[in-house]
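Our consortium's second objective concerns turning raw sequence data into structural hypotheses that experimental partners can test. To show how far this objective has progressed, the report includes one record in full. It was chosen at random from the queue rather than selected for favorable results. The single chain below, 269 residues long, was entered without modification.
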Amino acid sequence: MAQIFTQILFQEPSPIFIKVMIVMNLIISAILGISEATGKQNVEYSKFWNVNNQKQVKAKIPSKMGMIFVYSPSLIACLSFFWIFPTGGIRFFMLNSAMTVHFFKRVLEVLFVHKYSGGMVLGSVLLISSLYFSLAVVIVFTQHLTLGYTEPEVDMKYIGLLIFLVGICGNFYHHYLLSKLRDQREKGYKIPQGGLFSVVICPHYLFEILGFIGISFISQTSFSFSSAVGVTLYLVGRSYVTRKWYLSKFENFPKNGKGSDSICFLEKE
């Protein structure tokens, strides 16, 4: 196993802050995933955060504005890295481009795809934005630190790019399908059609995970792989609570939680 890691990971520098960030990344992701699954998260972000919590959320800013604030700092940071590190090499360029596209897509979805209601607590917006910003900065900066170090024996950056493109396109497509389930005059919930909704509850989460796996393959650093694991832990928790929410709202929801009878909410999860 150790030999496999030496073949696919950079012989990268090992400053203490990278080790600390890897540990913190995994711990925070696990905590958030468990919090999602139990409905007891403190950031009051997910639609499902109060499945088991009757506390009422007091809206501070409109949800659309809040989500713009969540993603914009990370997008600005990734764009700035093209100017800060102009000679990072092809792998650095591919990685930073993937991260930029990821957050640019999210901003576009907030503006033109997702439908929102209610509001977001300002403290939650700042916390989530900080987590995304830290993730983006550390992934890209860690890649910068590998410049001049021995490349991995197995070059995975091009297959990583392919996986990333599949992930981001699949994620966008399923978000688009959800957004088209009703028009502005309709209320309530409908059964999603098309894509992989007949197979799994949250195909958009599946493709989100694929996107970060692709990013980790492009990067081939220990922190990028830990980030992919962290995203998986978090989204597994969200998928679990999605199914739990369905079962709590719809008596006819199938116990297996998938298939053409699946019911999905229409707004951004």
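The partners drew two points from this record. The two ends are 37 Å apart (CA to CA). The chain has a mean pLDDT of 83. Both points have been shared with the crystallography group to help prioritize constructs.
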